[in-house]
Amino acid sequence: MKCCLTIAGSDSGGNAGVQADLRAFHAYGLHGCTVFAALTAQNPFRVAGIYSVPADFVAAQLDSVLGVYDIGALKTGMLSDPAAIEAIAARLREHPEIAKVIDPVMVATSGARLVSKDAAAAIERELMPLATLITPNLPEAEVLCGGEISPEGQRAGDASHAKELARRLHGMYGCAVLVKGGHGAGSTAVDVLYDGAGIHEFSLPWVASPVSTHGTGCSLAAALAAEFTLGRDAAAAVRGAKAYVHDAIAGAYYVGRECGVLGFAPRETPRA
Predict the structure, then answer these.
(1) Which domains does the chain have, with CATH numbers?
(2) Is the pLDDT of residue 18 over 60?
(3) Which member of 218, 229, 240, 260 is catalytic?
(4) Which of 20, 69, 115, 160 is in Cβ range 3.0-4.6 Å of 215 for a Cys bridge?
């Protein structure tokens, strides 16, 4: 059985982070390996605390799985320690055979900064050049291109802007770029992929009144890694991963008082 690897933080509520990633890998019939970069105390309503795992222990986790497990692809999540980011990159450079989905968790769709400028710079400098696919939301794509975050009204539904950003980021990093459009207005969520050969647009209708959407970004990146492990190209991987997340949102359910979690949506895929 092929394996996928997640390099991310934990979510003590099991909604996002490593827990969401493992749920996605399992849905695809793949074994999941983990490297914890942070521990969090959180639930869907608040984050009470974050503990960054020391860089040397992040490195030790990577050394324990790389070259031992048959890892077809990996994804990274929120990484906040520049030293850990450098340690991760140093080891990933030694494994060009592994497809790498880099989710540059830097800016929320609200525009709020999620990591320090030093961590963001380390992600850009160390990890982005190693990527097979990067998955910024539109505010992150704007920041990565050296610009300022544009007003929400200007961003909403502006597919031409997303296409230009995707092309520019491909030129900067030489990898496929998926600019996520989940922030937009309207009745559909539109993502834009540039794979170096052409632009692809992907849209699915919003799920009305979802029980939970917590962990969708993590789940998308993990599903993309699973799709790459199963041999999909970038366009097919995005199509499949978006369908997985859509089904997970549609199947979300309550696990506590007003506390929901994404549903488990098994994929009908052959084991690699």
Answers:
(1) 3-261 (3.40.1190.20)
(2) yes
(3) 218
(4) 20
